[in-house]
Design a protein that fits this description.
By secondary structure, the chain is of the alpha+beta class. It contains 7 helices and 6 strands, in the order βααββααβαααββ.
Length: about 170
Amino acid sequence: MKFYGRAELPVFLKQFGLTVTEASLSTWATRGGGPPYNIFNGKAVYEEGEARAWAMSRIRQPVSRSARTAPRTSQQMIEDAAFAELFDQRVLAVGLREIALRAGGSFEGSSHDIQAMGLPGPGWPASAGEMRMRGLPELAQKPGFAGVTVTRLGRNDLWQIVASSGAEG
């Protein structure tokens, strides 16, 4: 279980492309609506899985402020689906990078082994089969994606995950 202070949580959420300020967290702590937090030594601390779940719950479909909304085109629906797939892959990649770091920088195992490492939070693949369906093979084609390199070892369900050095991308 990993905790972040009020200053660190915005940095953590930024890796998912989500912008939250320390001031907003402070306001939400008094008025409600923010991520759940605990108190440690008189300071607010946010548990990683709960903060991630809160952030994911705040992502909504685009809305129009006008009274009349034009019907969505098939191109817009395709773009929305592509964004959702990329977001799922990025979230998966960040989780895989965490697993590699926990294992000292490199981890080898099957999809089932990876899933058993306990990828936290809602929205994570629920099974090894779902993990394969939601992007593990595609991540193998994107070296350095979100700070992780995923390599398929042979034709079997065996993967090597290496935490890439440098900035997450």
